[in-house]
Amino acid sequence: MCPPVVEYSREFQARAADELDLLPEGSAIAAMLADYAVLRDQARVCG
Predict the structure, then answer these.
(1) Which of 15, 17, 19 has the alpha carbon at shortest distance from 37?
(2) Closest listed residue to residue 20, CA positions, set 36, 4, 44
(3) 4 and 39 in contact (C-beta within 8 Å)?
């Protein structure tokens, strides 16, 4: 069974990108988001 992929509006994605830009270089949160992006891609392929 594949996990569901949450869809985010363009506005929400833009807000997240703006917030990500405010994080310091090498932020742990940025690294976690990169991992999350990979998981989202895998879930899309699974479904």
Answers:
(1) 17
(2) 36
(3) no
For 26, phi and psi rounded to 5 degrees? Answer: 80, 15
Round to whole Å and give the CA distance between 24 and 18.
13
Tokens (6 digits) for 19: 């917030």
Q: Output DSSP code: residue 26.
A: T
Is-above-0.90 flag for pTM? Answer: no
Per-residue pLDDT tens, the chain, 47 aa: give them. Answer: 898 999 999 999 999 999 999 999 999 999 999 999 999 999 999 97
Separation between Cα atoms, residue 8 and residue 21, nearest integer Å: 18
**Amino acid 32: pLDDT:** 95
